[in-house]
Design goal:
Structural class: alpha+beta
Radius of gyration: 21 Å
InterPro entries: GCFC_dom, TFP11/STIP/Ntr1
Oligomer: single chain
Number of helices: 12
Largest sheet: 5 strands, antiparallel
Strand order of the largest sheet: 1-2-3-4-5
Pfam family, one: GCFC
Order of helices and strands: HHHHHHHHHHHEEEEEH
GO cellular component, one term: U2-type post-mRNA release spliceosomal complex
Length: 241
């Protein structure tokens, strides 16, 4: 529809038109897209990607960096906090990666987002033992995934529906509040199997080795596994990033 205008206007004028009238709508479209493997509606994604030939790679990358990947990583963190099936997780990761063109996958910030996802998945597999999970993540890390743009939609995963509903509930306890705040910021928060301190479950939070436990709505955290320091929730989230 805009191709006749593209030929009629100078490159600078046409770019200004896109930035003023089109890009804000694409940003809103991407921001409003629900990211849910259980029932993924891809129409908003396709509407944005339909403009990839008129927008520069840098402009398209900015849209994804600001309005897609933060929420995508948040969804992944929420999923990992609910002991998922890692075969489904890796399929979901690979499916989204195949949705991007080779040029977009080559952008440093997009590479970084996928790398962060792999780090989160790898960290989670060291905490929650599941046959084949670590091998699947290692394969993705070492060999990557074919990034051809034509690909099926990310798979629908029934088990994720309950996780979405659970995360949407108003927290009923302090642990639920911590879980919800971690999900909002895309921070991994999972129990460490068979590890307790003063009969309280110890959790791993983030990907830099921070551990914590909760005692009567007070958070104690440790960066070395031996010295436990009381802290606020906001401080805990800051040190775990």
């Amino acid at each position: 529809m805009l191709q006749p205008w593209q030929r009629a206007l100078s490159p600078g004028s046409f770019l200004a038109f896109l930035l003023k009238h089109i890009v804000p709508k694409l940003q809103h479209c991407m921001q409003s897209m629900l990211i849910n493997p259980h029932q993924q509606l891809l129409d908003p994604w396709q509407w944005v990607m339909d403009w990839k030939d008129m927008l520069s790679i840098s402009n398209m990358t900015l849209i994804l960096d600001k309005f897609f990947f933060p929420r995508w990583l948040q969804t992944l963190a929420m999923w990992l906090n609910h002991s998922p099936n890692y075969t489904q997780v890796t399929e979901w990761y690979s499916g989204w990666k195949r949705m991007l063109s080779v040029d977009l996958l080559a952008q440093p910030t997009i590479k970084d987002s996928f790398h962060k996802a792999l780090e989160m998945m790898s960290r989670a597999t060291t905490i929650i033992q599941q046959p084949g999970a670590k091998e699947s993540i290692s394969y993705l890390s070492s060999s990557g995934v074919n990034s051809t743009p034509a690909a099926p939609a990310p798979p629908k995963i029934d088990s994720f529906a309950e996780a979405v509903r659970t995360a949407a509930k108003i927290p009923q306890g302090f642990k639920d509040l911590v879980t919800k705040r971690c999900e909002e910021r895309g921070i991994l928060f999972v129990p460490i199997p068979n590890k307790y301190h003063e009969a309280k479950q110890v959790y791993r939070i983030g990907t830099n080795g921070v551990q914590c436990y909760i005692d009567r709505n007070v958070i104690f955290y440790s960066q070395n596994g031996s010295t436990w320091i009381p802290t606020s929730l906001n401080r805990l989230l800051d040190v775990s990033c």
